[in-house]
Amino acid sequence: MTTPSIVPDSSPPAFRAWLVVALLAVVGCLNYLDRVMLTTMRTSLVEAIPMTDAQFGLLTSAFLWVYAVVSPLGGFLSDRISRTKVIVGSLFLWSAVTWMTAHATTFNELLLTRILMGAGEACYIPAALALIADYHRGPTRSLATGLHMIGISVGQGLGGLGGILAEKHDWTYAFRLFGIIGVVYSAILIFSLRDRPTTAEERTAKSQFRVRFGEAVVSLFSSGSYRLAMVFWALAAVSGWAVLGWLPTFLGERFNLTQGTAGMSATGYLQPATWLGLIVGGMWSDYASRSNPRGRIYVTIFGLCIAAPAIFLGVHATGFWMAIAGFMLWSFGVAFVNSNMMPILCLISHERYRATGYGILNLCSCLVGGATIYLGGALRDAQIPVTRIFDASVFILLSCCIILYLIKPKTAVATQA
Description:
This protein has helices at residues 14-36, 42-48, 53-80, 83-101, 107-122, 124-135, 141-157, 161-168, 171-192, 200-208, 213-221, 224-255, 259-268, 270-289, 295-316, 320-348, 354-381, 386-406, 411-416. It is mostly helical.
């Protein structure tokens, strides 16, 4: 197998690089808003389209399964064809499907739209993070990634709009509205979003080497550091899904909160901490990487060293506000991972395979996440306290620190890409 050489950098203007982040932050917001809002309008949806609880759960599970399987393919298309074409096509597809969802009249039609939405949205994240990495090739890479993740976090927080709009209008209103917004925005991106400008030498190298999926997989998995990164990302997903999935239940049971209050407490207080962590983790990582190729790795480990004991603090706190403080600190620390996962991937893989590599990591994360949610329910059925699940998450995060420390950057990649 012939591996393409790394060619000299052609840095785009700073304004264009940050414009790309701003444009994609909006797409990231729509990406999560469109997928989440269905779960916030359960009552209105079930009244219009009768279904069992199992069927309602299947709508989310089917989305997650398809999303996981298609992620590597979406990343591969981004590496082979064009980042921006995949991003625009992905946004247009899932936005059109969002609009189509409003016209579903049976459960099977609704399930089909969720499957199609999973396929459409899966292509976005690997392509978007790879495009950001293309534009931000040095001391701004982690911060740029973190700012994009803030857009995604905002989309998660705005998911509740689905339930609000369903109450004021009907369940179809939000899907029609945001479907149209996404389609219009995809048209705007056609004229405003571009792949990173390349030199003549880069274009020549690209014309001589076509990315093939099999070769990309072989190249990625031939690296021991990439295999470690995959284990790390999977374990981080186990911990994250366990905490986020059961935090409302824990708060409600420990402090005798209503369902609504527990749910808002488990999300509303954590969001600002996440945003701060994304910015601090990104800026600090960029600064540390200037003098040490492993700087991004060390900063991420530091974030996890904050997050692990913070879970213990939150779980074993005797007062509500002390528990909230602990989980806010956890949210701040784990945000370092989201700011730095793609930048770390850039240290251990060739730039031609970044999106494919992230797509495979996304596949592992989603599959493990789904299994974690199910396992958590099974443990609850077995009368195992939620605190045991959280305590296990502490040890998982500490294990992640060790695995992350073992990852070794490729010197050429670390200094040139």
